[in-house]
């Protein structure tokens, strides 16, 4: 090899190293996670010994394992390590748990499972009186294999299959809406349905939300923003104030982690403040419900493929078709309690029909503004700044607006990935999507100017279960969802006996109120 070629490769290698270092520095500089700041490395590079070193340096005496059970809430297993070897053993081998007490589909006869920590999820517990590290875990069976029916494993299989078949990686994030219930106060009273982007003191619990943003960031969540939402009302001596936290796009498993950790943090803060935080889809009829909208995008080689030549790409339209094709059965994962279907009603900025559109908040799949061709705004707003701002990578996503806070988040995200794969593998998927488009000026919600109204989403858990069973084979394709799970989920939904519930409860406010109370702390 000539001296010139050798010098060229040395220079290239040096530049690549600097590039990687710059990327890592960017991951660290403003990162709020204390382990990231201490270790000087991004979370995805955390190791067992990193966690041990941090715990010893900060005199942290407790380790908590967290994992999700049937009810969708983070569970807790607490350790007080008595030595470095003991701590190393816990972080290496995990621990046994009783699967039959965590999952309804596991019998007591062979219920032992392992929970094993995922190091990248480690964060300092902000609520523990004793300094503690929390880490999210995965489930493994008696043979040490990933538990087939565990949500995180189903999502991993779905994501791997999507990438292997299409070459795309999906990223996503959620919008987490919630209500804060507190004793009524006449000081700066709430204005019914006028809470959108209110600031303190008219947003009474802005401080709780801001603290939640800080703690979520310290736990490793990528925060987009937080704000008060439309919903605000007073009912029976209580104020109900709606807020939202929105995240940034990350890998699918990380997007689930963000939502799970944020819900845990918000509930703990609610307990500290002496108020109730609820992610229930409906608190009161006639008032805005709480959704958990999911934004998603497809990447290949780090490039967003949702836009082509400044317009929504055929790839994006194929994914939209897949979501619409699966939309009725996806409610089995995203809308899992009877009050979910009190939210999915007309005139409440919640979807009822299977269609899509641009910026229209009543459609099922929305294409939000993506800054496509609009990056000259910054120069217009700041004429004194003569810097070259460069070209910003596309931020375009599409948004599924049906899910709510009752969602089984792992299975919902798995279903979304399966739906995307189906759309991408359908050759004329983009054309099929075009047939279900509703323009911003379309009258009466008709599709594509045809005068034809789109199909409707299910109106109950019972109907949702029927839709899920009808597409059972598509979810079990490639063994992503294990045999028997779809039937189990459908059976649980049908056990609510809520067929024709909306008609039966019409004008029966006391019964609706009792139903809301029953599911106030779902998911």
Structure characterization notes:
There is one protein chain. The chain is built from 17 helices and 18 strands. The protein has 523 residues and is α+β, with helices and mostly antiparallel strands. Helix 8 (314-334) packs antiparallel against helix 11, helix 8 (314-334) crosses helix 13 and helix 13 runs antiparallel to helix 15. The protein starts with a helix and ends in a 5-residue tail after the last helix. Mean pLDDT is 92; it is low at 15-21.
State the helical fraction. Answer: 25-40%
Alpha-carbon distance between the two ends: 62 Å
Q: Decide which structural class fits the backbone.
A: alpha+beta
Shape: globular
Question: What is the tally of beta strands?
Answer: 18
Mean pLDDT: 92
Radius of gyration: 24 Å
Task: State the low-pLDDT regions, or none.
Answer: 15-21
Proportion of strand residues: 15-25%
| Main beta-sheet strand count, sense and barrel state | 10 strands, mixed
Number of helices: 17
Key attributes of the depicted protein:
523 residues; alpha+beta; 10-stranded mixed sheet; 6-stranded mixed sheet; 19% strand
Give a short summary of the structure.
The protein is an alpha+beta fold and 523 residues long. The chain contains 17 helices and 18 strands.
Topology:
Elements: H1 3-29, H2 34-39, H3 48-57, E1 62-68, E2 74-79, H4 84-93, E3 95-98, E4 112-117, E5 123-124, E6 132-140, H5 151-166, E7 169-183, H6 206-218, E8 223-235, E9 238-247, E10 250-251, H7 252-273, E11 276-278, E12 294-300, E13 303-304, E14 307-308, E15 311-312, H8 314-334, H9 340-343, E16 356-358, E17 365-367, H10 377-381, E18 398-400, H11 409-425, H12 429-434, H13 461-470, H14 472-476, H15 485-494, H16 501-505, H17 509-518
Parallel strand pairs: 1-6, 16-17
Antiparallel strand pairs: 1-2, 3-4, 4-6, 5-6, 7-9, 7-10, 7-11, 7-12, 8-9, 12-13, 12-18, 14-15, 17-18
Helix pairs in contact: 5-11, 6-7, 8-11, 8-13, 13-15
